[in-house]
Specification:
By secondary structure, the protein is mainly α. The chain is 80% helix and 0% strand. Helix 3 packs antiparallel against helix 4, helix 4 packs antiparallel against helix 5 and helix 4 runs parallel beside helix 6. The radius of gyration is 14 Å and the shape is globular.
């Protein structure tokens, strides 16, 4: 297992690649960090930007909804979930399942 401080370095590398518009490299690094540190909102924010720049609008909104949920910003999460729902038919099956999971997570926060 990689030390958390190395994930922070990886996160900054992902952000640097994003700034250089190296979207695949950025995505790969954000994904590594997400696997081990899914509670970091900045990971989801970065993934949301990468997905959006790659044209995956539904997935972009789902990642931003994840960020919002982690930050306790339920109104923003609801907005992004609703926006992702609009693109549901354009998303693959994994993203459609992700949408259902994010909707469930929001309902849990509402309890």
């Amino acid at each position: 297992k990689i030390k958390p401080e190395l994930f922070l370095t990886r996160l900054h590398l992902a952000e640097a690649y994003l700034a250089l518009d190296e979207l695949d490299k950025s995505y790969d690094n954000f994904s590594v960090v997400r696997q081990e540190m899914p509670e970091w909102p900045s990971v989801w924010h970065g993934l949301g930007i990468v997905y959006g720049k790659k044209g995956y609008i539904g997935e972009s909104h789902l990642a931003l909804a994840e960020e919002s949920l982690l930050k306790g910003e339920k109104a923003d999460a609801k907005f992004h979930i609703k926006a992702a729902s609009i693109y549901k038919d354009d998303m693959g099956e994994p993203a459609q399942k992700w949408l259902v999971e994010v909707q469930k997570a929001l309902k849990e926060k509402d309890k």
